[in-house]
Amino acid sequence: MSASTASLYSKESLYSLLANSSEIRLLYLMPLAYSQTITCVTEHWKLCEKPQYEALSYEWGAKDTKQILFNGRPYDIRGNLYHALFNLRNATTARVLWIDALCINQTDLRERSHQVAQMGRIYSDATCVVVWLGLPDEACLKALDMLQSKEEYSARKNFELDFTKILPLLRKRDIAMERNQNMALELLIALSRRSYWTRLWIVQELCLARRLHVQCGKYSFSWDRLKDLVMLKLAQGSEAAIRPLHYSRMASFCRKCPQFHPNSNFRTPLYLICWFYGDGNCENVLDRVFGLASLAHDCCQKAVPIDYNSTIDDVFARLVGHSRTHNSWYWEPINVRLLERRIKGRNYQQSQPRLWSFFGR
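-> structure tokens emitted (361 positions)
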């Protein structure tokens, strides 16, 4: 970290102010050789300077905390992020990362608003998005071993032997292969049930990535490896056997990601993205819209600006008003109410009882 950046830190705050909305913080995760304690420092960069960094995709998880050294001071972070940093740090060189919980001052709503508005670009500009699935449990260990190994599907060899002698051997081998395939399918289903896949924010994080890499504890493998294996098992298994994997969010992301990179000119109306993904898990109800905005049309992003001082009723009114005018959706009241329930949740108490009158209903 440069001396000029370091001098900006005050005793009152762990964060120095960002110069403008185009600036971001990058996290330097110090290597094990630097300190046994997990040590991180941040440095300011402009995205136009094209810094080299990886972005972390993870879930915040339970609110249990562990302590790290952050910008020279002890700092409590959630356990899942602590384990991610512990497993991601290099032995001898610093690792440059972008992590929302540490690179954004979460207590500053103004900064949080303009930084979240940039998250689409942050993830699409990253050299790699690291998918942190958490620490492995017993059900996932074998799946992770399988994903790290080089599974081979060899063709039958031509034997110059009596067919009646070789047939029993072939049958035994086929039975063993079928058993292994069934086990592999069960292990992938176990991996697909991890809570990471239910998180709303991963939709834009995975879809906008240039390259994806998966890590679960000490296990690390490419996204393509996971994708190829999932697609293979879906093609091999019976309809009943593959059903849990086929309909899992993990398999859905394997089919789609990464493909929505901005360079592909892919854009979708925001209401439609919220319809499909707005029920994902997030801590702030506003993120059911804001967390998906980077995948939407530019006009949708301008009509529904990211502002954490807004209420969910205001955000939803802007979303519906813009979509009804510009996106040619068939606006029956039942559709609007279903979308509202999907975004706000079934038990949300509406603070604006006359919301529908705004749309002439």
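The first helix runs from residue 3 to 6.
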